Amino acid sequence: MLKKKNSYVVAVVGATGAVGQEMMLTLEQRDFPIQSLRLFASERSEGKELDFKGQKIKVERLTDDCFKGIDIALFSAGAERSKIWAPVAAKSGCVVIDNSSQWRMDPEVPLVVPEVNSHDLSWHKGIIANPNCSTIQMVVVLKPIHDVARIKRVVVTTFQSVSGTGMKAMDELMTQTTDILNFREIKTNVYPYQIAFNVLPHIDKFLENGYTKEEMKMVNETKKIMGDDSIRVTATTVRVPVFRCHSESLNIETEKKLTANETRAILAKAKGVIVYDAPDKNIYPMPIIVADKDETYVGRIREDESIENGINMWIVADNLRKGAALNAVQIAEELIK
Ligand code: A2P
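That is the input. Now the predicted structure with adenosine-2'-5'-diphosphate docked in place:
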């Protein structure tokens, strides 16, 4: 358990990565009470210097005793590293907030989106999981609707940016785009097909049931975060050539009828949500508007005329911020409250 202090020794594991960099920026922007910041990445980055609050901090590599004296460690270095190192860190007395998929469905590990289930932080045993990026932005919107009208079923299709895959994927989209525009041959390393000027209905590995792991994360993590196994979710997750922000089309079936206006009113009051919905003025959420923002933006709210109690909407959030770094920092903020 975390002891109350005026300031904390914080670590970012995976500090050189897309999410790690955003974690550092978020800690700085939100003025998290940091006594000192330690940065970790692979051996390749050892000794590299990164800026934090105008200071240069050297990147270290992970060792068995590197977590001694650290209060909170934000991990974003992939599931394999979290599997090995999160228990090492927790054993050293540090609270781990882990952005990977490694611990999310472990019954001993709370899976937390502060706007939805901060109460679950009370039973952590040293590791807290940060949910999947697409799931975080969806549950922020689903929870207030569920509280009023009980959600029976959700059909979601995602349009996910390449930053969700990491730095290498961002580089690949940039390089492929410039190569194509310059009539050069393109190289494909990160995804099975080119991502520039394309759409891939494939995120993470395919499973035996025909879904991808990403799709099943949205199904299973939603139930765990909302604390309700009865919510039925079906997902199609799609990678699009966008650098930042995941967009999602949601079809929500509720027990109690909600009109579009009632839904707008519920979401207008919800924490972490901005209703951005005036189709007569071409106002709807898009990645170019939501990048770098903290909230989940909701628009295109309308009744599903094909069923009795259904609502359609379009939601967009910055996957590196609310979908990853910000949610992790918000968890840390809850812990020190
Ligand atoms: P490095 O830059 O040294 O490879 P992304 O998802 O954007 O690719 O970032 C992954 C992050 O995880 C990077 O900071 C990367 O560091 C880090 N990482 C990869 N392998 C290891 C490892 N074996 N130990 C610690 N950090 C690692």
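The first strand starts at residue 8 and ends at 13.
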